[in-house]
Structures are given as structure tokens and as C-alpha cells.
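Lecture 7 notes: from sequence to structure.
We start with the chain below.
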Amino acid sequence: MPRFPRLLPAVLALAALDVQAQTPSRDALVRKLDSLANAPVAEGRAVGLTVAVVKGNDTLLLKVFGKSDLEWNIATPTDAVYEIGSITKQFTAAAILQLRDDGKLSLDDELTKYLPDFPTHGNKIILRRLLDHTSGIKGITEIPAFRAMSLTMYPRDSALALIKRTPPQFGPGEAMVYNNSAFWLLGLVVEKASGMTYEDYVEKKIFAPLGMRRSMYCNLGEVVDRRAHGYEYRGTEVRRAPLNIHTWPFSAGSLCSTAGDMVTWLRALHGGKVLTPRSYAEMIAPSKLNDGTPLRYAMGLSVGADIRGLKMIGHGGGITGFVSEASWYPDAQMAVVVVMNSAGPISPAAIASELAGTVLPWTPPAAKAFVGDATPLVGKYSGPARGPDMTIEVTSTAQGIALSANGTPARPVQWVDAWTFRQGNTFVTFKRGGPMGPATELRFDTGGGLFVLKRQ
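Predicted C-alpha cells for the same chain:
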């Protein structure tokens, strides 16, 4: 028998030592994640936060930083409860899909099946168009009359009446504008189809089966152990945020949870424990406009890539005094959660992306110079957006083109390919009337909205 096989264990051991010498140790990685998560508090840009990074079965970080209550100088407890704002939307979408799986509704049902007197203005509004923000219904948080109502304990019927009497922005499927009204209405559909209140449904059909014991519908009347108080930054000054009245965010933004429970949710949802395979596939499939234009949004979830270009499925949340981000990186089976009890100069999405980029390998996209003729693109484009209509002015520069949105200073955009450009994680695509004609349309894709702006 040859003698060299006896050397194999020693060779493999030396190879392993060489890999360890070249690859940061787990301890070094954890220290780096800890430092990144602590930075916002250490730099005075956040009051308190809880951060979780879980890759497979390895909890790399589940730690708290800062204060949950500044007045009483209380350090953030590990299982602090936060208001998670629009992260609520994925729970509402999951509830709708569970009810579909139970045969209690269809995604192609018209809204008027559940709200017979809802004014459609001649449009066919189906549940699918509510789930992906393409219904055209005006968002309640962008209706001027809503601002005065939002700080008072008014009946739910008042919110519904406000939504009903506001004309739509566009026809279903013609554009995408992030829309709290749509998910608010979906909460009513959950109640009609299930025979339960929305609060009871999510608590009994989602939280309880998954063991999410610290998650609940936010209710100011309840005493909740270790509930964080919300704060806001005004410049460098920190103020106590007004209390949120949870009759209005409802199924668009009224859930409370912890970082640990959100990890449980992400692993369960993306691990096949919440929906049937068919419904899960639909929930994470990018939606399309009527003309086939793909979106970077599915059903209550953003899909595609984070701001560093890593493949991600997730959603952020923002409500007075609280901001949050819950992201799932499918290729690595990794959950990244950031929940904060202050709204201010630091974005939880930016923190989550930096944490993910520390764990997962990625290469920044190379900048490309635009070599085409910018003349056909120059001009003004306007159309419906979140809130007032948006107007973008496109100008030509020595480096390519620059965009000014609603009169703000013009900023250059990076060329991607053909007639598509990007500015951070926002993509801008021009449509031309013909190969030689000027652009007739600008599509402004933020991920959470795709605004179709026409040349003026």
C-alpha cells in the first residue's frame, strides 16, 4: 500500500489553519457587528435599539444598546417591545393569504365584495392590487385632512369615511404608490372573511402558533412589561414623541414586537411554517404593472436587493417615535433585525445593510460613464407620487445627467444600462416614443413605489 495517505490528516489540518489565518474568526466578526450596532447610540444619533443577526442556526448578535426610557435612565432590556410600524404590512398580507388557503377569499375578489359601498369610480379594485400598492387609492397618511385626525381617538369609521371620499390617484395597475389606505382596508377584509377582529386574528392565528409571546397589537390601554418609549430628534435635541393612537394605523402599522420575535417570524415565514408553498411563492414574487413593468415589491414585502446590492426580502417600519427594519437574506438563510425607539438622523435600513454586508461577501458595483446623447432625456416630467404629484427636471452635465426632484438641488445619477440610471437604491428609467424621438416618460422606482411621470 502507498504510504502517502497517512499524511492526509496532517495536510488537511495545515490547510484548515491556513484558511483560519486568512478568514476573520467568528469572535472578530461578532465584535465588528457589535461595534457597528452600538455606533448610533455612541455617536448620539439614536436613543436605543435592539439588533439581531442570525445566520442559519448561528446567532451572531442579539443585543441591546442605549435607553428604553430616558426620563428614568432605564437601559434597554433584551426583550424590549417596540412599535414596528409598517412591518405590520407583511403580517396583514400573510393573514390574507392564510384566509385564501382556507378557502375564505380569493386574491381576485373585488374589494366591494367585502365593502359593498366603497366607491370605485368605475375601477375594478381586486385584493391583489391592495397587497402591492397598485390600487390607485389615495393613501390616508397623505390626505391633508388626516393630519388633524391622527392625534385624536376618533372612531374607525371616520378613517374609512375619509378614504372613501378621496378620489383615486390613478387606475389600478397603472403605477405603484406606497399606500397605507390599501393595507388599512385589507384589515377590514381580514375581519369580514375570518369573523374575528384583526387584533384577535394576528394574535391567535400568527403570534401564538409561532411562539411570538412578546408580540401584540399595540394598545395604549394595556400594561406591557418592558415597552420602550418613543423619541424624536429635532436637530441634535431629543424630545419625547407623542403617543400613537392605534385606531388609525390599524392593519397598516399597529403591531408591536421585539427583535427576538421578529427573528422567529422571519425564520418561520421563509421556512414554510406560515403559508402553503403556493401562497409563500406568491407573497415574495415581484408584482407587475398592467403593461408588464416589474416592481421591486410583492405582497407586503420589498424584494430584490438591499442598498448594497445583496439579495434580500424585507420591509421597514416608521411610526412616530419608532423606526425598524426586518430583512431576510435567502441565499444565506440570514435574518437581520434592527428596532429603534427614536426617529432621527440614522436609518435602520442603513444599519441592517451594513451588518449584512459585514457578514456576507459583496462587491460594490463599478461606476459606468454614460456615453450616449442626453439631449432626448432633458426636460420636466410630472405625475402622481406619494403625497403631492412629483416633478423631476432632468439636466445634462459633463458627467451625464442630473435630476432635481420638486425643486431640490440637482444630483447626478449613475448610468446602469440603456436608458436606466440609479441614485443610491432608486432606479430611473426613461421611455422614448421611438428610437430617434425624445423621452416621453420617466419611471422613478424607489422600491417602495414606481411613479410614472409624463413629459411636460
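Points to note: The first strand starts at residue 48 and ends at 55. Confidence is low (pLDDT under 50) at residues 1-22.
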